[in-house]
Structure formats: C-alpha cells, structure tokens
Amino acid sequence: MVRQREDGSQLTHIMVLHDSRSNTQADTTSSTIPEDCEMIKDQESVITSGSMPSTVGARAPMPRVASGEARWYAAYTRANHEKRAHEQFLHRSIESFLPTYPSVRHWKDRCVRLQMPLFPGYVFVRIPLDERLRVLELPSVARLVGFGGAPAALDEKDLACLRRALARGAFAQPHPYLTVGRRVRVIAGVLQGAEGILVKRKGNFRVVLSVDLIKRSVIADVSEADLEPV
Q1: Among 30, 47, 166, 202, which residue's Cβ finds the most Cβ atoms within 10 Å?
Q2: CB-based contacts of 110: which residues, under 8 Å, 6+ apart?
Q3: CB atoms within 10 A of CB 146
Q4: In order of start, what are the domains of the chain with their CATH numbers?
Q5: What is the pLDDT of residues 92-127, one digit of tens each?
Q6: Integer CA distances (angstroms), 122 to 1, 78, 82, 100, in order
Q7: Could you tell me the sign of the dihedral formed by the alpha carbons of 183, 188, 189, 193, in that order?
C-alpha cells in the first residue's frame, strides 16, 4: 500500500499474509507410535526424512519432470472436501485416486458404516504439469503439494503398490507418520512390492507404509512369512 506524505514523498506499507492452514498441516505430522504398537527394533534402524510440503522448509532437488509428461501429484483440499474434489476431477475427466477405508460411526440411535479418506486432506491426481491449472481452479482444491512454489511428483512405484493393494482387498487405516524402525519389503500377498516399517500390535505383525511427500502413513496387517529385510 502506498501513502502520500504531506511533503510529497511516498510511504510504503508491506502487508504480510499468514497462511494458518499450512501451519495446521505441518503440526499434524508425527513420528511417534501409538501406545498399542510395539516397534520392531533392529541394530541398524533406518531413518528416512522427507521434507515438508510447499512453504515448510527446504529439500533436496527433485528430478525434473517434462511439462507434458503425466505424473501423479498430491492435491491438498479444503477441509473435508476430499470426496467433493474427487467428484470434480471426475467431472473434468481428470484421472484421480482417493483411497478410503471403512469406519463405523456410533450415533445415539444407530451405527453408520462410512468410507473415510485414508489420507485426510489429500486426493491424488495424474496430470501433465502444464495442465495444473485445470486442478488448481477447482473450488475444493487449495494447492498442489510441492517445494519452492513448484508441484512435486509422487513416487510412482509407491503409489502403484498402494493402488494395487487396495484393489486386491487390503485393509489399511491411517497411522501417525513414522520415520524410524526396521524397514521391510513385502514379497507376497496383497501388499507385494510395498516397502515400509514393521511394527507389532496386539501380537500381530503390521507394516506402516508412508507417502513421504505429504508426510502421511497408513498401517496394514501382514504375515511375517511374507516379509524380507531391506
């Protein structure tokens, strides 16, 4: 804003906008394990660190992606707009992926079984980078996750494993973002090909799968015989 002084000189005010939603997103990430989970310890625990999305710190340079090459990106939605954003993508013939899981909600007079977003606040879209405005102009989309103002493509292999596992009937639930523990690879079953961190809950082995770009994780049951160390 520019204001004129009495002596004819100009006084400039700089307005700073505060994005409270970005701060909220950063605060929701965690590297802890729920109390009912036991970490499977190893002598060489592996720590993987993914940098924060957009406006939240720096990261290593991302591989270049040709603007006309279709890749998967994470679209950050307005609060509770994941399903609405998914519908808007379908209406525009934009390939999208909204993983969900069944959740039973108990109300006073009844119980309702709902399909809830596996990664709250996110819908995955596959587009050429030069068509990102088709996504960003939708009312339910806040931004595409990236670094330094540029959208960052997701790891195609990890996302393909997750889509394949859910299509085969794998049951997964949201889990706090986990970076420390014994890393394993699933070599058989519906999660075959996936890599994650092994934990033990109520005597059963489970694997925590993470999408590092958005710092979100999910947990799924797995047989110990279907695992190998990474």
Answers
A1: 166
A2: none
A3: 20
A4: 29-49+159-230 (no CATH), 66-152 (3.30.70.940)
A5: 999 999 999 999 988 888 888 999 999 999 999 999
A6: 36, 9, 6, 11
A7: positive
